Structures are given as C-alpha cells and as structure tokens.
Amino acid sequence: MTAVxxxxxxxxxxxxxxxxxxxxxxxxxxxxxxxxxxxxxxxxFAGDDFINLVVGFHTEDPVTEVRQQLQKIExxxxxxxxxxxxxxxxxxxxxxLFGELISxxxxxxIPRPDLLKRPYMLKPMADIAPDVRHPTLGQSMRELWAxxxxxxxxxxxxxxxxxxxxxxxxxxxxxxxxR
Length: 179
Hints:
6-stranded antiparallel β-sheet; about 25% strand; globular; disordered C terminus
C-alpha cells in the first residue's frame, strides 16, 4: 500500500465542494486522514479566500489511476476540464506525495513543487504527516515547515463550515463520522 497525500482547495462555495470531494475520496480510498482546514487569500489572482487542507490515504492503485480518480472528483465538483490555473475554482486536487515516487512527467510532477512554496500545502501536510520525509530533500515535513517563512501569507484555521477554530482543540475530522 502506498501512502498518498493530496492538497484539496476551493474558493467557490468551498464548504460545499470540499464536503463533496471528501465524501468521494472516502468512497474511492477508504479511511482518510484530514489535516485542519485553513482559510487563506487567493494566490496569483484576485478572488475570494480559499479553504485548503491536505488529505492522506493508502492505496494499491497506480499514480495514473489516482490522478484520473481525482480529476473525476474535480469534475463532480463542477470544475470544468482545462480550467485556468490562476482563477477561482470549485475544487483543486493536487497529488503532493505518492509514497517515494519521483515523477517528472508533464502533468504529473511528484513531489509537487508547490509543496515547498505554498504554506497552505506545507502546513497542513506537516500537521498530518510531520515525520514523512520529502523524497528528494530527505527532510521531514516538520523540518520543512519549521524552516518555512510563512510571514507573507496568513492562514486561519477554520472548521469546514468556515468558522475559526482554536488550534489547540481542533478535532481531526473524518468524512465517515460527519464530524
């Protein structure tokens, strides 16, 4: 079984579409590990705030099948095929890590380079998998986050309903439990 970590984000009805995507991912891959969700400003364009989180699961499926399944889930969330990268979106699902796989195929670069550039990917990844090591750098997610300068990009931990949480008491949510 391969450990897979996926960044999930939306800035168009984010609570609704994240709920739809998480249910579909749970149906496809079984139990999910969810990071806290974070509200942050859009990056690369002017738009509504995003809600982002990282989802972890295990699978025996090859990476190409996982990517295809994630694209189907994006489509089920009303994301049109070929949607612009720097624009509002109902759902964005990006494979951050796929076990120890290193891929430079067009459209399938793993580990995802944005993991090291975007706090809304790295922080939730460090939240749920602090000891996982980056396949090319060898550093743990905890170490990478500790060395990250997130000063220019604020994030607020929220419940998927959009309300701020107390980061010390925020429960990990499971799509199966509805919590």
